[in-house]
Amino acid sequence: MANLTLVQAINLALIQEMEKDDRVMLLGEDVGANGGVFRVTEGLHKRFGGDRVVDTPLAESGIIGTSIGLAMNGLRPIPEIQFEGFLGPAYDQITTHAARFRTRTRGALTVPLTIRVPVGGGIHAPELHSDSPEAIYAHTPGLKVVMPASPYDAKGLLISAIRDPDPVIFFEPKRIYRAFREEVPEDEYTVPIGEARIVREGEEITMISWGASVIQCMNAIEESGRSIELVDLRTIAPLDMDTIEASVRKTGRAVIVHEAPKTCGFGAEIASRIMERCFLHLEAPVQRVAGFDTVMPYYKLELEYLPDAERIGKAIAEIAAY
Amino acid sequence: MANLTLVQAINLALIQEMEKDDRVMLLGEDVGANGGVFRVTEGLHKRFGGDRVVDTPLAESGIIGTSIGLAMNGLRPIPEIQFEGFLGPAYDQITTHAARFRTRTRGALTVPLTIRVPVGGGIHAPELHSDSPEAIYAHTPGLKVVMPASPYDAKGLLISAIRDPDPVIFFEPKRIYRAFREEVPEDEYTVPIGEARIVREGEEITMISWGASVIQCMNAIEESGRSIELVDLRTIAPLDMDTIEASVRKTGRAVIVHEAPKTCGFGAEIASRIMERCFLHLEAPVQRVAGFDTVMPYYKLELEYLPDAERIGKAIAEIAAY
Amino acid sequence: MPVKPAFETTIDHVSILDENGGFDEKLGKGLISDNDIVTLYEHMSVCRHLDEVAFKLQRSGRMGTYPENRGQEATSLGAAYALRKTDWLVSCYRENCGLFWHGLPIEYVLLHWMGDERGNKIPDGVNVTPLAIPIGTQMLHATGIAWANKYRGDDNIACTFFGDGATSEGDFHEAANFAANLDIPVIFFCQNNGWAISVPTKIQCSAPTIAQRGIAYGMDCVQVDGNDIFAVVRVVRDAAERARTHNRPTFVEALTYRLGDHTTADDARRYRDADEVEKWHKRDPLIRIRKYMADRNLWDDSREDALSEKTKAEVSAAVKRAEEIVAPEFADFFDSMYASMPAELRTQRGTRRTSSLGQDPSQLDGSNVSYPNTQGVNA
Amino acid sequence: MPVKPAFETTIDHVSILDENGGFDEKLGKGLISDNDIVTLYEHMSVCRHLDEVAFKLQRSGRMGTYPENRGQEATSLGAAYALRKTDWLVSCYRENCGLFWHGLPIEYVLLHWMGDERGNKIPDGVNVTPLAIPIGTQMLHATGIAWANKYRGDDNIACTFFGDGATSEGDFHEAANFAANLDIPVIFFCQNNGWAISVPTKIQCSAPTIAQRGIAYGMDCVQVDGNDIFAVVRVVRDAAERARTHNRPTFVEALTYRLGDHTTADDARRYRDADEVEKWHKRDPLIRIRKYMADRNLWDDSREDALSEKTKAEVSAAVKRAEEIVAPEFADFFDSMYASMPAELRTQRGTRRTSSLGQDPSQLDGSNVSYPNTQGVNA
Ligand SMILES: Cc1ncc(C[n+]2csc(CCOP(=O)(O)OP(=O)(O)O)c2C)c(N)n1
Ligand SMILES: Cc1ncc(C[n+]2csc(CCOP(=O)(O)OP(=O)(O)O)c2C)c(N)n1
Ligand SMILES: [Mg+2]
Ligand SMILES: [Mg+2]
Predict the structure, then answer these.
(1) Is residue D12 over pLDDT 70?
(2) Is the ipTM value over 0.95, yes or no?
(3) Residue C367: per-residue pLDDT
């Protein structure tokens, strides 16, 4: 049991899975000698050598496309895309191939792939280093999409992702890479993909979030002094609707919080499902506290863009009063 | 006034805008001598010459990326992507550049671009020729997304798109390219981007759809014998929520129909907005009749995948009975 | 020296059996035994006949869009012949001949074009990937597949096929660049057939050769007469050797020609001249081999007649197998989405519905639903 | 002839002023006047000093991540000097020197790295695009921009800058291929500085030169000593001439070196040797020009001292302008999203909310909302 940051927890999960299974290998830009621009792969190149921790050419489609081939031919590649803003060049390989090979071949060829991607805003970074594209991939059948909000979940979910027989996009909220530490068991354990976590229980309102926003929710809930149940999705696709439904049937009110733009963000899917499943239990319209429908601004204004405790708090007050 | 197919209406709009404004030029794969694989650009190469109707190398990112440069430097390019399944390679240029230049430069550089893309299923085509990615682009601030459901709207919306100072993705539902004809005025007219159309009025239920599904809705509505108001969005982004709200406040019931997979499809955004705006008027949960959360199957099964009058009819019966 | 050469190179063009029957003994001797050339010719004839039949099937509505391979048979077949069964072929959609040689049953290709995913359900032990529809994307998979072989330390390699147009896609560049810089044993085999649908090769590559694309990566590259199966076998053997022993990729440009339309959805007369087609008919790889065999008394009309019977039988048997397969079911497009099916997907599959009231009729209990037709919710 | 050459080529390496002060009169004579070389040197000194200042600003929290240009000043400056103000520069982020020469005020680059979009609001008449963050994507814009010039029939061209790593991206390939096959007047200027963050050039391109990337497109290509401003001016002039008069693109590989870290977020000592850096310090383009000027009595210590005063003043004035700009406002990131703002966006801007009850408080009429803090809904 050690007290680790999210970066350290991921690093530990990678080490343990690579020790355990020599089909597991890492590839990406600067993941080798440099240990990744966030140092997530620190020490792995030295420990496992250049064949298993590979610095690739600067080409995201190449990184994912070759990873698909590696996976189809028996390995367990873990490609890293340096920032979510650079998933774009790999979008085609992810959506037309990684997501489709199993069903296209009726199971003959599969793509057990874990794509690691730092995600989200709040770190004062340049353009295209602060976006939240999870809904894009949640709209792509064949993929699983994961985003931990704590070091413990990060390690457990990453191990599940690596062992998953299907392609998983593993989003790492960079704003909390080192924001806090948590007890993380040294021994191996898994957190199942597809199961949300009740962060705290409550009776009045259900709040649903994921990634770095979960902390903003915590702050808002504490300030509000109300009895609010906070659900950390942990997995975006497939969505754990049972946990959400049970909570909303109890509270009758729901607020969803995410960094991505509101329109067609994943909050829209959750809100629709809640209405579909809990229509007669709803006492107020489900509220979405999200990024605005604009491009993520450069860092001088990024905190104005991201949902914070103040905006969340207002939504809490409003839905409670409705 | 001529009786035209959707293909002919688009062809006519292109001719008229190219006659009118010599900054307008076309580029893409096979758009020249071949007149496009659907013959949408038939005759244009002969009429306007190889400088204004350009067959490009087989590279979608190249087509969109160079179009961005053409547009930033004063032209009005109309790139064609041959099928929506091949938008993937251009996804990065569309989302990181076309959508962002205006705000990135605070208005100094703009990208007046109209991306023409055949979209949707039902034509017995090979893999990746039948998808519906509109929600992906509706989740991308900075873009406008248009999808006509009739020849008349196709001509009017395309002219608006070409003249729009911002990038527009103009989706052409290939299933209705030649499915029916309609009176289309010879003279120039525009259909404004951002305005939905009430296809038929009704009191009991509001049905919202776009593209080729609109016809499926018509059939289902007729079979149902009920008083159903059918809204053809025509524009997906920006969404004409006022028209939808007015209708749902009247009917209290809404069914959304689209070909794309249900999860995170554009139906999720509409359903959420309806709940947000019409909560106290809703008599039933908004229903989504959509593609399944699977990869679009090869053509033997594509009609099982696409929402048809039967599936829509069942949803009508159910929401009416709720 | 202020101006000094930083780089110099030459690219070879290789030809062994030319269109007039000329044969280069030095390069060609012993390359393909008399028995094998006959077998290869017979194999090509099957593919040629398949095109005819498939075309008719499409026209009569029994099959969807189909791309004829006619005229290009020697390219993929020569490559497949030069490789091992344990090597991987990562193809586009105009390599029937090589795929069949490598072990893919004919009906798989038919099923694919009949709109049936079971045509992609490659049998165990056949190292081919399914036909690739998105142009240019499969070379990256080939590079990854070959990389995995190298990672495991076996000496199997991959050979990926693509057209002239495909070399315009960024993915081609990234695949070649990965292979060259990371030393991956893959062969990039370009079938330059002069056209990408209606777009001529010069719009895809205005350089004197497409082969020189490989120079950008410091890759060995060579141009070969793609309608000369001997020359194709020669260059692919050399490339395979280079890959197996040194993990070095090779770029092969095979000059060939699509004698038919791009696909059954295309009409090539709209964009190319009849005499161009004529010229290439004379270079037909089958004619060439037939002459080679006849000159050596390996072939005559009676054998040709016997073959055409055999060919007809083989192809129609394959068509029969493809058409007699049980119709696919609704559930089929759900069942291979994931190793284990998520709840929402299971519900959609079970109810055939995405709408919540259809998925959960219990919400309607008490209220009486009158469906427009006789079928129930779960029909 | 069974094996005949299909293609042969040579690539030149051009150098005029070498690191020992050797100067090639034949190529260099009259290329840059004495007055101009002094002006260019002064301009480079400003950029060099800007790096120092920017680095400190970042370390003291007054600026975000910043990429030093140190060591590469001669490349973009030489190119800009060889071009016309009416030509377009489409850059990456390590071309301050060329951008400033082309007319971009220094504070724009500072504002960009200070996280302020106004740094991209290029003044009218300055033909540069904003710094490009996504690697490799801007070359396509340059190709399109140059294409538009050709379309209109004016003879302005575009020059796009990018690094060695950028040549691994598919977009680079597509841009070069479009330019070569469609005859577009654009110059592809690669700054090969040996590294892409921590990844050495050989992982991006294992060929003997990056210049030969251009051969793939049948493009003229040349390698040049990027720390030799005379050589850079020479090759870019030739390339510009080729573009202006024949609409032919050129690929230029400039050999240079990043003397600093990749950015202020990087620590280059983790992945490269001190002696490699040492070696390149000796090739510093500023040292080289200083020697050239001193040999010709164009420069001495007193002028150097005067310059450093001038430089300090110029840079601190720019910093002042950048830091004194009014703080941006919430509304700013809404107002340039579209030419005319859609309704939902207007509501979000007006209410600062995405949640429906926050956007439409009338839905709450009657009910009393007690906000956790003093601000109202529209605060
Ligand atoms: C990414 C992508 N873009 C466009 C298409 C449409 N398309 C299908 S085949 C083809 C031409 C391919 O030409 P080439 O690569 O030369 O192969 P050939 O058909 O000549 O064998 C095009 C443009 C596609 N399938 N995929
Ligand atoms: C598409 C994309 N992928 C990754 C990155 C992260 N990144 C920023 S700079 C850089 C290295 C660029 O190297 P090079 O092109 O040689 O330019 P240099 O920094 O050496 O001038 C990388 C990988 C990015 N900005 N964009
Ligand atoms: Mg071709
Ligand atoms: Mg570099």
Answers:
(1) yes
(2) yes
(3) 84
What is the pTM assigned to this prediction? 0.98
- Whether ligand 1 lies within 6 angstroms of the CB of C193 is answered as yes
Q: How many CB atoms lie within 10 A of CB D267?
A: 11
Q: Which residues of chain A have pLDDT under 50?
A: none
Q: Are strands C250-255 and C158-163 parallel, antiparallel or unpaired?
A: unpaired
Confidence of residue C2 (pLDDT cuts 50, 70, 90): confident
Work out whether strand B287-291 and strand B254-261 pair parallel, antiparallel, or are unpaired.
parallel
Cα angle B56-B62-B64, degrees, rounded to a multiple of 5: 100
Measuring CA to CA, how many Å separate C140 from each of A66, B91, D206? 5, 18, 18
| pLDDT at residue C366 in the model | 79
Over 70: is that where the pLDDT of D377 sits? no
Q: Residue B11 belongs to what H/E stretch? A: helix B6-20
Nearest C-alpha of chain C: how many angstroms from D232?
Answer: 12
What is the number of the ligand closest to the CA of B58? Answer: 1
Q: Which residue has the tokens 């189909």?
A: C66
Q: Sheet of B168-173: strands edge to edge?
A: B53-55, B24-28, B76-80, B114-119, B168-173, B144-146, B235-237
CA distance A210 to A147: 7
Q: What is the pLDDT of residues B171-226, one digit of tens each?
A: 999 999 999 999 999 999 999 999 999 999 999 999 999 999 999 999 999 999 99
Check: CB of residue C10 under 8 Å from CB of residue D212: no
Q: In the annotation, is A45 catalytic?
A: no
Residue C231 · residue C16 · CB < 8 Å? yes
Cβ atoms of B147 and B84 within 8 Å: the answer is no
Q: Is D163 in the pocket of ligand 2 (CB under 6 A)?
A: yes
Q: Is B292 on the interface with C (CB under 8 A)?
A: yes
| Distance of residue C249 Cα from the nearest chain A Cα, in angstroms | 15
Residue tagged 């092969």 (tokens): C252
Q: Model confidence over C257-269: pLDDT tens digits?
A: 999 999 999 999 9
- Across the interface, whether the CB atoms of D134 and A124 are under 8 A apart is answered no
Per CB-CB distance under 8 Å, the chain B contacts of D142 are 69
Does residue C136 register a pLDDT over 50?
Answer: yes
**C71 CB-contact burial (10 Å; exposed 0-12 / middle 13-18 / buried 19+):** buried
Q: What's the rounded Cα separation, in Å, for the pair A245 and A251?
A: 10
Give the Cα-Cα-Cα angle C178, A49, A115 (nearest 5 degrees).
55
Closest CA to A255 of A189, A311, A206: A206
Whether the CB-CB separation of C132 and C92 falls below 8 Å is answered with yes
DSSP state, residue B88 = G
Is the CB of C356 inside 8 Å of chain B's CB atoms?
Answer: yes
Atom of ligand 1 nearest to the CA of C135: 26
Predicted confidence at residue D366, as pLDDT, reads 79
pLDDT over 80 (residue D376)? no
Give the three-state DSSP class for C328: coil
Buried b / exposed e across C43-67, counting CB within 10 Å, b at 16+?
A: bbbbbbbbbebbbebbeeeebbbbb
Determine if the peptide bond prior to B307 is cis (ω within 30°): no
User: Is C268 close to ligand 1, i.e. is its CB under 6 Å away?
Assistant: no
Residue type at C312 in one-letter notation: K
Residue in this structure with the two tokens 């997906």, named with its chain if needed: B236
Q: What is the pLDDT of residue D373?
A: 63
Largest distance between two CA atoms of chain B:
60
Q: How far is C327 from chain B (nearest CA, A)?
A: 8
Taking the Cβ of residue B317 and every Cβ of chain C, the question of whether any pair is shorter than 8 Å is answered with yes
In Å, what is the CA distance from A137 to each residue of A129, C93, C338?
18, 28, 15
User: In whole angstroms, what is the distance from residue B146 CA to residue B172 CA?
Assistant: 9
Q: What is the mean pLDDT of residues C4-32?
A: 95
Phi, psi of B291, rounded to the nearest 5 degrees: -65, 155
